[in-house]
Amino acid sequence: MIHVKGTTEKHLICVKAPSVADGYVPAMHILDLLPKYEAPVPRYTSYPTAPHFSPAVNATTYAEWLRGIGNAPVSLYIHVPFCAQLCWFCGCHTTAIHSTAPVEAYAQTLMAEIDLLGATIGRKLNVAHIHWGGGTPTAMPPACMIGVMNHLRQHFTFLPDAEIAVEIDPRTATPEALDGLAAMGCKRASLGVQDFDERVQKAVNRMQSFEDTRRCAEALRERGINAINLDLIYGLPFQTEASVTATTEQALALNPDRIAVFGYAHVPWMKKHQNLLPNDAMPGTLERWRQRTIIDQVIVRNGWQAIGLDHYARPDDALAIAARDQRMRRNFQGYTTDTAPVLLGLGASSIGSLPQGYVQNIVSIPAYRDAVRDGTLPIARGIGLTDEDRLRRDVIEQLMCNGSVDLDETASRYGVPATGLLAASPALDGMAQDGIVEWDGRTLHVPDGARPFVRNVAAAFDTYFTPAPNRHARAV
Questions:
Q1: Residue 270: what pLDDT?
Q2: Residue 218 and residue 232: Cα distance in Å, rounded?
Q3: Whole-angstrom distance, CA of residue 380 vs CA of residue 377
Q4: How far apart are CA 236 and CA 272, in angstroms?
Q5: Residue 266 pLDDT grade (very low, low, confident, very high; cuts 50, 70, 90)
Q6: What's 327's DSSP letter?
Q7: Three-state secondary structure string covering 91-143
Q8: How far is CA 350 from each of CA 76, 133, 230, 278, 319, rounded to the nearest angstrom?
Q9: Exposure string (b/e) for 335-359, b if CB count within 10 Å is 16 or more?
């Protein structure tokens, strides 16, 4: 246990939790705080966050920004908004398909967008990271994925150590699809697991056995794709402390390198299919907290390193090393070792990040296709960054990645005093009294036991954020 500055005895936080076998429940003050801090807040994969993007940033703006980027290596994100079946918990931009025709046509549009991007930049930039996300990227036929990668190589120079990562649904990862990944140079695969309990799987419309997942992991390794990530979710219908414990232990048995553990984001006002979930079987706030706590215990007691808000890695993994060295970054895919100053998004709904600001492609696939066919960069909206935005983004990213920040030191790197940042002091004082931060008026630290509240801490520095229903998922 640690005692947080400015707290009383009832505000002790459990840093090294007892084992699940001990019947662990969270410290009483944490339970008291859950209603106060469960309000919806952003996940801070960017700052400013996506709800504040606007059409004021358009294709013309993006073209100007592209022509102004330097020669440092860039990263690429390719979004494939298709799946064989829609999972009812899903919050991604995707749609279910029953033939390959739509995704084959989409691959052609992607290549046309690559041509537009290359022509606008006007030179071949070096690429350090490539991430395929979705949806299910492997819903695209292998020949199409390889074709898109070859097209990228015509306009960009892939560095010899460039990491190519692909998100995979083990249920539809055929041998041909995995052969295609190996042929296009994939080095890291992220496997969606969510939960191995059949009752939970049935409730969320995602039947996926442990054996299917194990076979997929083994098949990837047979093809030389040895870096494997797993995604788990808590807070789904019918999940219990026992079921998430079993799922986590099974996940660890697959010997992955990294695990991401997300709280289910219930946003039915945005994703209508989430209304198909049995609402009366949803875990409440306390149950969600206990599930998260137990997953954390199981992973950490097996020697893994907890990273940021919701990631874990083996201590010798590059992400764990970057976290210890405070070199880790956070982007739209979560925590990463990628330090490239530019992330170029390709595909419908994808988001790009540049020194000048953020851009998002058109979400509608037909409208995205039509814009590309018309020879226009398919930008729907975005936001330009001010100097104040960049400073606050830095503060928020340090909190989300490192759990601590020195406001004076950070502000000095931007040539300004920390005065503006100190407007967060009243909120931080309250959090210090609650025991979820250590705060001396200039330096801020989130103790390990309070990591689940780090989004609330970050929100204290978000000048755009206004608490509102039907905008973000709840914090805890």
A1: 84
A2: 19
A3: 9
A4: 16
A5: confident
A6: -
A7: CCCCEECCCCHHHHHHHHHHHHHHHHHHHHHCCCEEEEEEEEEECCHHHCCHH
A8: 10, 9, 22, 30, 24
A9: bbbbebebbbbbbbbbbbbbebbbb
Q: Which of 11-15, 143-147, 262-266, 293-297 has the lowest mean pLDDT?
A: 11-15
CATH numbers and ranges of domains, the chain: 9-46+386-459 (1.10.10.920), 51-384 (3.80.30.20)
SS3 content of the chain, % helix, strand, coil (to 5): 40, 20, 35
Length of the chain counted residue by residue: 476
Place of tokens 């201590």: 315
Distances (CA, A) of 352 to 3, 155, 169, 347: 42, 17, 24, 11
Region at 77 (left for phi over 0; alpha for psi -120 to 50; beta for the rest): beta
Q: How many Cβ atoms are within 10 Å of 413's Cβ, its own excluded?
A: 9
pLDDT in tens, 64-107: 999 999 999 999 999 999 999 999 989 888 999 989 999 999 99
Rg of the chain in Å (alpha carbons): 22
Examine the pLDDT at 10 and tell me if it is beyond 50: no
Q: Characterize the bridge pairing of strands 379-384 and 125-134.
A: unpaired
Distance CA 106, CA 85 (A): 18
Six token digits for residue 244: 């998430």
Question: What's the one-letter identity of residue 341?
Answer: P
The answer to whether residue 110 scores a pLDDT higher than 90 is yes
**Distance separating alpha carbons of residues 117 and 140, to the nearest angstrom:** 21
CA dist., res. 85 & res. 191, Å (int): 16
Helix axes 425-434, 28-37, angle to 10 degrees: 150
Number of alpha helices (DSSP H) and beta strands (DSSP E) in the chain: 15, 19
Q: Which DSSP symbol is given to 50?
A: G
pLDDT (tens digit per residue) in 211-220 = 999 999 999 9
CB 37 within 8 A of CB 436: yes
Phi, psi of 159 (to 5 degrees): -65, 150
List the structure tokens of 424.
């967060």
Q: Which tokens is 119 given?
A: 């022509």
Q: Which two tokens stand for residue 55?
A: 């059409």
